[in-house]
Amino acid sequence: MLRRCVVAWLCVSGSAIPAVGGQPEPATASGVVFHDLDGDGVRSANEPGLPNVRVSNGGDIVLTDADGRYRLPVTDDTIIFVIKPRGWATPIDELKLHRFYYIHKPAGSPRLKYAGVGPTGPLPASVDFPLTPQNEPDRFDILLLGDTQPRNLTEIEYLMHDVIEQLSGTSAAFAVALGDLVYDDLELAEPLNQALAQIGVPIRPVLGNHDQDYAAADDVHADEHFERTYGPPYYSFDYGPVHFVVLDDVIWHGKTEAREGRYEAGLGARQVEFLRNDLALVPADQLIVLLMHIPIIEVAERGELSQLLAKHPNTVSFSAHYHYVRHWFLGEKDGWSGPPHHHMTVATASGSWWSGAPDELGIPHTTMRDGTPNGWTVVSFDGRRYEVRYQPARRPAGHQMNVYAPESVSVEQSPQTEVLVNVFFGSERSTVEMRVGGRPWVRLEPVEREDPYYAAVKKSEESEPPPPGRKLPKSIACPHLWRGVLPAGLWPGTHRIDVRATDMFGRTHSACRLIRVTVTERTSDSQQ
User: Taking all residues of the chain, what is their mean pLDDT, rounded to a whole number?
Assistant: First the structure.
């Protein structure tokens, strides 16, 4: 097992070479990306350099030469990292975190509320990156966990029992934690990482707005604790035939006399430069997957991002942040140039921030604001193709929708009785149909309104005494709700409502609900 280091996982040797004549030379990092034959992370004389591997300083990207060597300019606040090529693995520590970078901060991080990077001292003469071969097939799965976001150790325990225990032993290639790893208390990162490691696959963390040090005066320093724990907040890598880009789309504006501290969605010029250089080295037909915390529709550089992706017809992106599920298919109306782009905000592991009444195990039901249960997302890749599916926490995989109808209606009322279906993963490209008994299937119409179940649970919070648990947040107009009405001519008795929903990938899910139709009882005048 590799020992853990919060600064780097690579081989460094020697000290910086002094300048000739007493004049400082421009700071330049150099080193070798090498085949780590014995897996010890240290380059031996017999371990060859690897050519044509990308290495970056967070802006520039260079390719290693025939001997695996590279050179990059650095400042006194630079993270150098290797862009993992297909078929090769970077070191992974005991917490399943990738160590593919070297942090160059000679003086260390400034003093903030949460510990940043310690002083790294002079730049080593050689900053080397070890890689080992690994099998990466065309077909593989990854896991997406939105907003794990514990406030305390108790909520980490909720996460462990509600989500991680089900995922332990997964066959997925890796998992991505899509930001808001914690809820402002950055000291919870360590126990959270210990819990996530039990999934058993490598973890790729994304920076969220609640993962910043709010004591920082600016965005440059708000990420110091994240860098100390996880490394660069943005980077890219290949796995199988897919190119992944992890983005930091949270910009922090510290508190001043004139304003409170706040964040906004954006990338900044340096990250856009990195992305431009990165995509220039990606084949036009390769599938590109962007991973971020705040949805792409809020990112200030969305138009510029669309231009950078314009030559790449195969793209998809994922975020979290909203605590509800939604698909966007971005085009000209959204300020998106080039090929249409599919973006999805995924289900959050914490649901509605671990709110709602506890169940028999003491875990809050934490239903999201759109009526979707908390859970996670699985993305399946096959070459340039991808499919996405949602998995609710501690529920069967087939639980993909809720059907709402009254317990009973009269014969006269049935033709006006509304049936609502919340298809948790549904989108504008979904088809939802209903039939009652042996009648023909009829297509339901999409509507945007409050989820009925969520509305009822919120209303129950007004009772005295209120139900236990933290109150749920306000509901939203659910973006994946469909409406129909019962057919006329239903006879008195029990009837079955069947619903089938076909998603954008052609998969069909089904659900049913039973309803009673009654004969209207007329009340005599004496009883009125």
Answer: 93
